Amino acid sequence: MSEGQWPAWATEPVELAAPDPRWPQQGERERRRVQRRLSGSLIGEVEHVGSTAVPGLPAKPIIDVQATVTALEPTGPIVALLAPNGWQLVPPELDGRSWERFVVQVSAGRRAAHLHLLAPGTPQGDERRRFRDALRGRPRAGRRLRRTQSRPGPGQPP
User: Fold this and answer.
1) 126 in a domain, yes or no?
2) Secondary structure in 3-state letters for 61-118
3) 2 domain-assigned
4) For the whole model, what pTM was predicted?
5) Strand 87-89 with 100-107, pairing
6) Tens digits of per-residue pLDDT, 1-56?
7) Hey, how many other C-beta atoms are within 10 angstroms of the C-beta on 98?
8) What is the CATH classification number for the domain harbouring 46?
């Protein structure tokens, strides 16, 4: 698939937003929805991860949830369960992460949520969880991250 064939949401710019006090509730709502839809394919609980799961932290306004599933393949039946809620699979060859399948919930032509479907026994889910929990438990770390997020990246004007 060439870049010109990608849906608009796949190439939309990612911008940080000020902390939104609604993100924890939105994350919990999405977590519960995915938990219900995928209950027969899950190992453990669906979790709200990423910056929107950390109160007071600027973030891209896209809810990230993750779930470990019994098997990544075949992905079709899992995506079919999620499709009524606007979820779309990012082809694995585009995503490039063999340990997960990346699914995007699209609303009004924009990404509203990301779902990281993880293979059993992969450490990436634990890493995301530890990072989230560290930021929640250490306000100074969150402040340092906010300062880093607000700095221009390479090649960007100050």
Assistant:
1) yes
2) CCEEEEEEECCCCCCHHHHHHHHHHCEEECCHHHHCCCCEEEEEEEECCEEEEEEEEE
3) no
4) 0.85
5) antiparallel
6) 455 577 888 888 888 999 999 999 999 999 999 999 999 999 999 999 999 999 98
7) 10
8) 3.30.460.10
**Residue 58 near residue 19 (C-beta atoms within 8 A):** yes
Alpha carbons 122 and 8: distance in angstroms, whole number: 31
Structural domain tally of the chain? 1
Q: How large is the angle between the packed helices 139-150 and 124-137, nearest 10 degrees?
A: 100
140: in domain: yes
> Which residue type is seen at 57?
L
- 100-107: strand order across its sheet: 47-49, 63-68, 110-118, 100-107, 87-89
**Residue 50 domain boundaries:** 15-146
Q: Is residue 155 part of a domain?
A: no
